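Quarterly update from the structural biology core.
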Amino acid sequence: MRKLSLVSIVLLIVSLPTFAGGLLTNTNQHILFLRYLARDASTQIDAVYSNPAGLAFMKDGFYMSFNGQSAFQTRTINSTFAPFAGFGGDATKKFKGEASVPFIPSLFAVYKKDKWAFSGSFAVTGGGGKATFNDGLGSFESAVSLLPGLLNQNPNFAGTDKYSVKSFMEGKQIIFGLQLGATYQITDNFSAFAGARMNYVSDSYYGYLRDIKANIAGGDMVNVTDYFTGVAGQLNQAAAAYEAAGDAATAGAYRQQALAATETAEGASDKELDCDQTGWGVTPIIGLDYKTGKWNVGVKYEFNTKLNIENKTKVNSTGLDEFDQGVNTPNDIPSLLTAGVSYEILPVLRASVGYHHFFDTHAKMADNKQNYISQGTNEYLAGMEFDVCRWAQVSAGMQRTKYGVDDNYQSDMSFAVSSYSYGFGAGFDIAPNMKLNVAYFWTNYDDYTKNTDNYNGTGIAGTDVFTRTNKVFGIGVDYKF
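Predicted structure, tokenized:
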């Protein structure tokens, strides 16, 4: 009997970006981004994140902004792998994960006096979602799907052609960011910013493979672990009988078969992982702004954030050491360069464009996945705002996000798909010192097809087609004291 080997659950690198931005960064910190997008040359309170050097051109005073967003995302993987036909009869299966975050808050504050502006913010700067795959993932099930073929190699179990498994996966990623900094107006037209953001990571992953069954030798569906535990017991009894009779050679053969049956039972046993991860790192940030007439130009650079996350493991029966208690994994936040230009076309009409580049190849990732990125993420943004009347504005914008990842980066547990994002909304001056912003933002993702001759290490060809959906609603209040 050949030993059955099942690949255990691999959850550690699940990526759950819910917002706009790069592989780990959320760029929609404020509702003005949702309804305008191109905010990299802003001189309003959202500039605390998008263009902190531009805060020097605000009027003197103390400003605060509170924002709330609701995000809803699906992650869909259509996996084609011939052995999947043993569970339902179809070689193509859809694995769908749903992520929802009913409320994501962010808080901004600015104190502007003469040439100085001191600012701070607290927001979910990365992740923010919990994704649930009620039927697991193809990478989980592909190992189990080999079970009928492995059993068929033994004549005693010929005819095995069906399997079943209960599989589940849920993962959550959140990076909280607390940013502080100072802006100084060097000349009438030129200003600079220096600051930092403290990032705290809080991740959690839970998943399992349970109750693996097969129609052994063409019979009824039975639990594989229970079945082969029983077979091992019978073989050990036979070995003991031959040992008592003095036939050591036959007894040894039965012992070997019993050992193989035990290994098969253990290989098909339930697998479970319950692991939390935490870590922290600091992001230095610098920025410049140049304002002249109707034009404004803003530039910001966020340095690479060295960050390791440490396991706090409750259960790990996967047999994989990387999930053990106390193990550290690299999870750097890539450095980011942003640049934007805004122009006042008319007193009631404004337009902006922006560019983001994430230096993903410089950030250390789990399993050295940065080596499978040919170039960093590029984003191109544009937006316009029109004053409908003295107290109301409408705006809209779009963003193109283009990733530079290759096939070796992509997996059903962590994939990045290029996209187009769109947002629109309105601002209402509900009081002389208070503005209400509302917005709707959605993303259309490309499909990414990955063909391989070695699907999840099985040695058999397979295909995954990755895509997502994303919708975000937002409302916020800006207040000047």
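DSSP finds six helices and 18 strands in the chain.
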